[in-house]
Amino acid sequence: MVIARPRIGLAAVAAAMLLSLSLVLVALLGAHGQVVAVGAGDAGAGAVQPAASAAAQGVRELAPSVRLLSRAVTPADAIPRAVADSPLLAGDVADVALARRVGGARPAWVVPASDGRSMCVLTTRSIACAPNAMVEHEGLALGVTLSQAGTRVTGLAADGVRWARIVHADGTSVRVPVVGNVLDVSGPERVAAVEWRGPDGPRSYRLPAAR
Fold this sequence. Notes:
disordered N terminus, 4 helices, 13 strands, 2 domains
């Protein structure tokens, strides 16, 4: 008994082998958030390209309103290991690879939440996250940390917000500039409210303890 087999050209065999290899690479790398670009005549054929994450997409969407997010991440933006491994970032709450550092002796980092829907201001002792839409619509998203040393107020500000007024519980106030899209002020006084001018006019946030 003779079984007839179709003749297969060398070109077809090579194409089939290339396709099989491509599928294997995609299967192996896909679990790590990467894809392999393969194409005849493509100068980047076979190069591994990182897949866009939800956090990266969130950065791109908010960048037109927050200039800080438009610049590239540099080694100077790296979060110290002690902070990155602390409970503040447990559960991969934020994408530390996309952090941008601001501040000097008391640094803070703007870090996108892993889901891409919020942006966080991280310090060595606190993290405060707010929806991207809040930054766009209100102009400033605040976080307040209370400790024995006093009160620290941090916030991510849109480009049009240049300062905020910190109102203390005794009625005194101080005007604090926004630096690098971040508000960061601390002191021993108890803070009663924070005031600023948003996209649609004056805004005010009263701390719950002061109500």
